[in-house]
Amino acid sequence: MNKNITETADLVLTNAVVYTVDNDKSTAEAVAVAGGRIMAVGSAISITAYIGADTEVIDLGGKLVMPAFVDTHMHPAKSAVDYLFGIQLRGVFTRSEYLEKIREFVEQHPDLEFYEGSGFMRSVFDETGPRKEDLDVIAADKPISIFSVDGHSIWANSKALKMAGITKETPDPPGGLIKKDPLTGEPSGLLSESARWPVMELFPEPTKEQYKESLLWLQKWFNSQGLTTCHDAIVKFEPDYYGAYEELAREGRLTVRYRGSWLVTPEVVGGGDGQPEDFVPEMSIDEFIAKGIKLSDSFRTPYWQIKSFKFFADQVIEEETGFLKEPYLHRNDGWYGIKVWRQDALNEAFRKVDAAGFNIHTHQIGDAAAAYALDALEYARTVNGPRDSRHTFAHVQMIEKDDIKRMADMGMNAIIAPYWSVIDDYYWELYYPYLGAERAYMGQYPAAGLMEAGINTSIHSDFSVTEPDFGSAIYSAVTRTQTEKVFRQEKGERADSFIRTTDYSGNPEPGMAVPLGPEEECLTPAQAVEASTINGAWAEYLEKDLGSIEAGKLADIIVLDRNLFEIDIEEVPEMKVLMTFFEGRKVYSAE
Ligand SMILES: [Zn+2]
User: Fold this and answer.
1) How far is the CA of 561 from the centre of ligand 1 (A)?
2) DSSP β-bridge partners for residue 394
């Protein structure tokens, strides 16, 4: 009776190891939660003071409790629709299995006018890529289009190419590549980057209801992975797309809070490198920014907000479209990849977004892309003056040390995917021949270098490029090696003829699954956890509310089945989430 009722918790998690991710990296035994926020963190005895008649008390028997995970760059609504309504090639890894899955889908959906899918691995095919003829055998009279796993290219059949008007004579568009058969000169069926669009435009957009259904399906999966905050890195001015998030947020149905970025491309606003002088943009960059801000202002919910604009500085190395300082080595034509923007246009676009107080979220893969995007960011900062802008590079596959310093000097975010900093089939089939042994092994995916330069570094899956799984992310951040499970999936029957090791002492021989160099880029488990939690919160301007277990913050909390700091590293990918709380509400339970 000596306690004020407002001091009574709705929920107490006790008898746990609470890894708080606060500034002191402190641990505790119990957490009290009320009204969706954390009231107190401390010893089990101290927290008993918050237990009232209506308090739910969960005794965790010594399990690990952590802040819920944050994923700072992914494509949730688009990908979830692909999973629910399209041909899904993830989970199989050979040409014949791909064709079997496509044939099966087409046979099960004879009434569809268009067949769309996703998930093929570029490494399964040679440089010319997958072939249209393989798809023509399955359906010759209806268009088929399948996205690669990273979304940067599509595999189309002859009907789709014909409808899109792509022939032997069609030149590569600015910012894109049409793969041609080296003997006949005919389009092979692989279109990358901007060359995809004429085919993509043939396919009908999903409806708002389809997006909503997909997001509701997806959040159950994400919650089961301990994920409660995600960033949609490509939002276009499509009312059904952003409207799906907005309606779910207003209806109070989201158990993942989403942030997003408006995608700005030279095809819409002009300013593309190599774009014809007489190109007429759909709207000016000023009109684009004004429209984005106006729409952002209309989303007045904590669960769906857009505070950034997304730019591509370049594309991806596997499609020869990442922009490099030194040329691609497998070709003999001095090819450096694709620079998406003209410098002057990018300077002005960044200056305007920065002046509007918005975040600049840039896709950056190649070292040359980092350099010219940093020039543009520095230009914006010089003209506008410094502010707490937190501009972002997503992916950061290759970057020179001096440019890491420039990122640090500007207080930028780096978003990394530890899932990719490994030696896998992409490495041996694509990065190794394209970049050469030295650049491929020593020059990719700095992680410790970014963190130790003082750059706020957070983790992303780029879903559906990779399916979020923080046990695997932490494992690969710490070892720079594929998990046993992913290795076995990818290699299939070939697995037993390979050596897989996390030991750095041997030299990487083609085909081996050894750790990616350099060894000093490995993170510690504690760094990997910070990158998955508090640093993600900072990247989303949410560090006052999320990312650590501290009094006053939102109660986004997970319980894990084992203590990742105490188990053998090989066990970390096996780690399971037992419970996920979203603002104090249990949204997932393993039982
Ligand atoms: Zn992405």
Assistant:
1) 30
2) 363, 415
